[in-house]
Write a structure and sequence with these properties.
single chain, about 100 residues, alpha+beta, SH3 type barrels, 6-stranded mixed β-sheet
Length: about 100
């Protein structure tokens, strides 16, 4: 009986860890891009946050195409409305969903 309870508790803790480590999606307004440091400074719900982008970060356009320019994409300018998929560590950006290009 104690072994069954211990196993149940362990399974619950593992499941809770997986849920907490899941990626989260946020709508954000871009404040600043630091290409050299590979950082995005954004505003999410009246709070400024800084996120790291890396070589695995995908930059996806509004029609689903992937940007080859990455962090240097011309749509990444202050005031741009973005959708960010943030990794479970709450520091790294997995995906940046870009707005349409202005004419």
């Amino acid at each position: 009986m104690p072994r069954r309870i211990a196993t149940s508790i362990l399974a619950f803790l593992l499941l809770a860890g997986v849920v907490l480590a899941a990626d989260k999606t946020y709508n954000a307004t871009l404040i600043k891009v630091d290409v050299r440091k590979k950082l995005l400074l954004v505003k999410i719900e009246d709070e400024k946050k800084e996120y790291v982008v890396d070589s695995k970060t995908k930059y996806i356009g509004p029609r689903g195409g992937v940007s080859e320019d990455g962090i240097k994409d011309d749509r990444l300018k202050p005031g741009a409305l973005l959708q960010l998929v943030i990794a479970g560590n709450n520091k790294t950006v997995r995906e940046v969903h870009l707005p349409e290009r202005s004419k």
